[in-house]
Structures are given as C-alpha cells and as structure tokens.
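Batch manifest, entry 17 of 40.
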Amino acid sequence: VDVSAFQRDIDWQQVKAAGIEFVMIRVGFRGYETGLVKPDKRALEYYQGAVAAGLDIGVYFFSQAVNIEEAIEEARFVLDFTAGWDLKYPVVYDWEYIGTHARTADVDRRMLTDCSIAFCEEIHSAGRNPMVYFNRHQAQDFLHFSDGRIIETACICVLHSSIPVGGPFFW
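Output type: structure tokens
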C-alpha cells in the first residue's frame, strides 16, 4: 500500500489484519510550481505506526526535478529524513508529468533520464536500494531505456502494464 498525508488517519493494525505486508510511505515532494522541497507532514507518524504494526517499509519521493542538481538534492533529502529507518523495500523516485502549467513542462527525455539516474546513484551510494516508478505512458515517453545506466542503477516499476523493454523490472 502507498500512503501520503492525503490518506489522513490510518489504523495500521487494521492494515496488517487485512493481509498487507508492506507500505510505501511518501517522505517528501518538490512543488511543481515553486520547486521547494517539503517533507510529507505525516511521514514520520506513518513510519512509526507501520513499524508498530509489524509492516515492512519502503519510501518514495514525489519529484519535480528539472535538473540533475535538484534530483540529487531530493535524494539527499530522503536519505537525511530516513536516517535510522529500517527500510526493507526500495527508496523510490516518483517523477510525474503534471502539465504545461508546471515548472517541469519542458523537461525532456534526456534530462528526466539523467535525473532518475542521479537520484538512484545517490541513494545506492548510501547503501539503500533505489527504484524508479512511472506509469506506462511516462515510462515509454519520458525515459531513455536505451541508456544502459538506468537499467544498471535501479529497479523500474511500471504501473498497470508491461512495456517491451528488458531489464530488472517490477510491476
């Protein structure tokens, strides 16, 4: 299950009783208009509740990076925020296209691929397992899978449909 402050109060014992084995917690995000990095206001609360319920945990960051420097800043934010956390699941880079009104509207495939790789390399260099999440459209239209660095650097999660590329995919 994937959670962020939008889910509000969560009964973690009920989640566990429903057969859920792990949770992916949004630890932060970059504003698509302002570009400011902010923590998810309930991430620590969710982590503590999930741990108390005996659930395994992974985390994700909702990125709106427009360059490599911002992607690295996001990775470092995640590493600092989750220092000391017991993560059994990956640290996920979740970059999503918002629309023409967002500061990311002009980010091209090469830059998005480079940002994804930079985030994952920073996470990996800290001893965590990185992963990139995209829906099918974004994976096909926004990433350069021909760039072997992305396959070497991270596990890729594509939501709802497989795409015709090779590599370490999880969906």
